[in-house]
Amino acid sequence: MMKPLCLDDFKHKKINPNWSPFDILLQVTEVDQLKLQKSRHNDYLKHFLYDTLPPNLRFKFNNRKRTLTTLEEADDREWEAPKPKLKRSKKQHKPVCPLPPPDLPPKFKQHILEEMGGTSLVLVIQKTIFYSDVNPAASRFSIPFSQVKTQDFLNEAEAKELAHKNPMQLCLLDPSLKQTSITFNKWVMGNTSLYVLTNNWNSVVKNNQLEKGDMVQLWSFRVNSLLCFALFKL
């Protein structure tokens, strides 16, 4: 296969800057034809000389040709762009550090333990507030059983009262550290059970600017053995 034209093919040609594109095209065509004739002539000479060689020299010529071809191919491979190596993902097993238990901020905790004389702090639930929790028409905060951290915040007598659908009137410490009387009840709807905070819940939402998407924690504690709640906004 004849190689394409290059600058060396035109080194003996004089280019007139006043030539039209058509004149330049004719010059390129002429150079191309001369190169083609020269290539065919060289091929003819190669075949002619090869045919005149004795058998032993033909064998050496073929071996030499194969060696050169191999070297050229190897040289081409060296100049190929290296293919990126695929890195195998190795799972690094990092030691899993236990998360510290959730705790109330010091100011909140100090108010409950020192100023209110509270004891037995227990995290009841940590949840994202939904629209139904801040909807004035609903006026309630839901505590689904499936999200309750532990049922140990209730004693046996309190659990029985709620099981008999008897609501409890409790003290709620809201995020602004204001104490509010609120109703704590248990609702059973089909196969779903949940606790709810009702009565005065709308005022808690309004006074603390609670919104859909807020993350809150509800803690229980005891004051003189009576159950109380504390609501903290994260």
Description of the structure:
It is found in: Nucleus. Residues 76-101 are annotated as: Disordered. InterPro entries: At2g31720-like, B3_DNA-bd, DNA-bd_pseudobarrel_sf. Keywords: DNA-binding, Nucleus, Transcription, Transcription regulation. Pfam families: At2g31720-like. Helix content is 36%, strand content 24%. The chain starts with 20 loop residues before the first helix and ends with a strand. The protein folds into two domains: 18-54; 104-231, DNA-binding pseudobarrel domain (At1g16640 B3 domain). Strands 1-6-7-3-4-5-2 form a seven-stranded mixed sheet. The chain has helices at residues 21-52, 55-78, 106-115, 131-134, 156-163, 201-207; strands spanning 119-128, 140-144, 168-173, 179-189, 192-198, 215-223, 226-233. The protein is built from six helices and seven strands; from the N terminus they run αααβαβαβββαββ. It has 234 residues and is α+β, with helices and mostly antiparallel strands.
